[in-house]
Amino acid sequence: MEFPPSVMVKLAELLRPPEPDVLQGEDLPPKDFEITSTRSENPADHKQEHPRSIEEYEEQEARRAEAQSHAGAGVGGRRAPEYTMNYQQAVTAEDVFLQIGHKTPSTASCENLKVRIKMPGDKMENIDLAVDKSSVTVDSSQYHLKLPLPHGIDPDASKANWDSSEETLILTLKLDREFDFVNF
Fold it and tell me: What PANTHER family would the database entry show (predicted)?
């Protein structure tokens, strides 16, 4: 027995599960609160600059990305200092020449995380440093930096030095990872 196409369409509609009722915005019950944002309190941030060319648009986006890329940017009118993070590994002749040691060139074999924070115009006496297992906070009259760390550290085994010639704070943070006993 052959079925005409109209019967097949009706059969397909019967086998399809019913669609749930979808509530639209006006169908939802009203709430007694209002959602607002206080992310940007500066009125100058609200004005919209309209670029006239692609180059102007790219420059605006680059400025926005630069402003947002700094951890702690704009806190209390202070700037976020430039910083670098490097892993540090203690290597012996056995590791390099004889390759007897268990160390590899990967970051899994590194013992320390070295953070260099450039703070031009500041002095060591003006800097407040707070280090916990997962972040570093640096405060001074000119700079503020709240830096989340990629790995847990041991604050008690870490060191901080001030290089007055380069006006740089150098943090040597002892890594404290879960499986370090395997790598060392």
Answer: DYNEIN AXONEMAL ASSEMBLY FACTOR 6, TWISTER
pLDDT in tens, the chain (184 residues): 788 888 888 888 888 776 666 655 566 666 665 656 555 555 555 456 788 888 888 888 878 766 655 555 556 678 888 899 998 887 777 766 776 766 666 666 778 899 999 999 888 888 999 999 888 999 988 888 888 888 888 889 899 999 989 999 999 999 887 766 555 5
Q: Which amino acid would we find at residue 104?
A: T
Name every residue whose Cβ is closer than 8 Å to that of residue 79 and which is 6 or more positions away in sequence: 70, 73, 142, 143, 144
State the Cα–Cα distance between residues 97 and 78, nearest whole angstrom: 48
CATH of the domain at 95: 2.60.40.790
- The number of CA neighbours under 13 Å toward the Cβ of 66 is 9
Distance of CA 44 to the CA centre of its chain: 25
The structural domain count of the chain equals 1
What's the whole-model pTM score?
A: 0.55
Q: Within a domain: residue 81?
A: yes
